[in-house]
Amino acid sequence: MFASKDSLLTRPSGYNIARSVRFRSSASAYFNRTFSTPTSNYKFTFSAWVKRGSFSVDQTVFGVAAGTSGNTGSTPRGAISFDAGNTHSIFGNDGGSTFLSLSSTPVYRDPSAWYHIVWSIDTTQATSTNRVFLYVNGVSQTLTGTFPNQNVATIFNGTSTSKFHALGMYANLSSFIDLYFAEINFVDGQQLTPSSFGETDSITGVWKPKKYIGTYGTNGFYLNFSDNSNNTAATIGKDYSGNGNNWTPNNISVTAGATYDSMQDVPTLTSATAANFCTLNPIAQGDYFASGQTAFALTNGNLSYGATGRNAFGTMAFSSGKFYWEMVNTSNTTAATTLFGVVNAGVARASVYACYYNAVNGNKGLGLLNSGASETAYGATWTDNDVIGVAVDMDAATPTVTFYKNNASQGAISVSSFVGQSVMMWFQNGGNTNNMSGFVNFGQRPFSYTPPSGFVALNTYNLPASTITNGAAYMAATTYTGNGSTQTITNTVGSTSFQPDFVWIKLRNQAGDYHNLFDSVRGIYKRIFSNDTQAENTNTDTLTAFNSNGFSVGTNGNVNTNAINIIGWQWKAGTTSVTNTNGSITSTVNAGATQGFSVVTYTGTGSSATVGHGLGVAPSMIICKARGQAENWAVYHSSLSNAVNVALFLNLTNAVSSASNAYWNSTAPSSTVFSVNTATTTNAANTMVAYCFSAVAGYSAFGSFTGNGSADGPFVYTGFRPAFVMAKLSSATGDWNIVDDMRQTYNDASGNPVLRANTSGTEEDVDTMQGQMDILSNGFKLRSNNSSLNASGGTIIYAAFAKNPFKYALAR
Q1: pLDDT at 6 over 50
Q2: Contacts of 526 by beta carbon, 8 Å cutoff, 6+ apart
């Protein structure tokens, strides 16, 4: 039915998952089972893959209470859950006496991909902190709170045959969860590590499922949800461990339609019909609202929308391929305009789109191109409960969008503004107070109609493969602690490492120390400072070597102060430095076309000239610095308005500066050269260096977004899980803010730590910006109204580099 576009069809282990079950809180869905006398009530391991739906309330993944139907009061009860703050917690008591109460610091609020959760308990351990472990995506999490006493019997997997256990409920017939479950293993009598259930992919470096091959113990079970022939304990609730410990499903539907809960949304690239699927994105809804507008309430695994609201977007974008999905509006109780369609994912405030349009006063079908354009009559009228199919062909020379009403094509709309762009699913309610509801289907359940020939479901298997499957082969953020002597820093992640050509070092917790930037073209010992105008200087005890797997540093305090935390951001350019005769200025270039990065040195002329950059495609961002004299840094960014006549300055907080053609000679970079003119920041009659970057799908992105001045800030789709993000308010004064995935390896309610390229300050200097950004599987989300990153109505430009393409990434 579907055709693959991926060269990595399965993981190296060959282990794939085919089914998940959606637990709908709106239906009070859960599974339950009454346990028998266990192998051990001191030890157990629970492993599950989950994909989150609603974030708004406490949600229990695994709960237990006394009685055969679940109850509360002073009876034994416990829960393993996401709380309303999106942290993980483990709680249990017995007769009102708490025996454990633990929580983790990370917040788990990525709705676009899967998490692997492992809870592992052994109360016989002598050390209290060894009695309970929580692992997320293979990594042990720090737990705080009350650990159980030694040799205490657990509420979970208890000895009484009356213990009522539940999946998806607190075991008190309330607090129902909204998420997807896949591949659940429960092992009675053993405290295991994640390596029993998962492993790191040797190609992508991503944690992935593997088949558990150990024993299960008396109460152990394995649920893979593969039999969806019925919604009984012997089918969808069947235990495949061999123990026969089946689970009773409650309010789980396997009847065709919007409530169908047997999903092909899974954490592996199993097939064209089973992978991680697009859903509606609950964290992107606020991005395009005007003042006073509200978000839709998303439910049912983020596939249903309801009540009042204005916009909704999908979690996946694509710039190539042919994709199909379906939408059904079930109610629109007021005279509202409803738009179902496709939006340019890279254009702020949905200013470019194609859609199938319903004005209730007449039910006119319209095809629109560009916000504010005249409405063009298109297609038949439609009304509630009609199935609107959307087929998007981004492989056509001019992309097309074809809408279907109940499987009848309304004709193809050519959208020239989509050429070379990424697009995503979108719909809009024409009035903020209008009451409308409905649901979408991207193929995780059976479509109502067969997609047109050549069109596929919107999931990660069908997304194009990136040329770079593991960002750690080309970019790394490496933390180390200074020793005041000499040391070698490795950038090895798993089995992946590289020799960097650009190393950017900053002390994290000592004030006054400059950013030190080195590259292989200028050579070791030669440093420049992103936060200062100084000319290049030579110091033999700073960076002392570019190694095959990192770099070495000497005793200089700016790169190796004893006992100080330090970060080294690194990029790989490419081949050995070559002389480049493209352009009127001869340049020395170390370029990597695959990763879209080159280091360029040249001698400026002070007048109109061109400089070869070696990338083979036009750069999206250029960072220039005069080496032989004190001078500001100049930054070209393709997302800036009138980019060829303006510049930003890396060492300053200034808004964008316009100087006619002085910086870039009013000429956009080409595939071979960038242009310079009279500005000494880009073309001093002296030696110069330029760091040139081009966008590589799935690895790097250079764009802009519009701030909304809210703690519920914009979501920025990059198409990958970032390892590094640098963002600058370009329309007003603001810092160059840098976040990476190594100084803090998880999203935190108090924020990912920020360093600023334009200051010598520490991470602690930016406490007011804590909480400002989440790094996610497919982009990043602003979580603060801080004016430097999310000024209301402000334009913020960014540069981002990947840990993993979204095709392979897990939730963070």
Answers
A1: no
A2: 518, 536, 537, 538
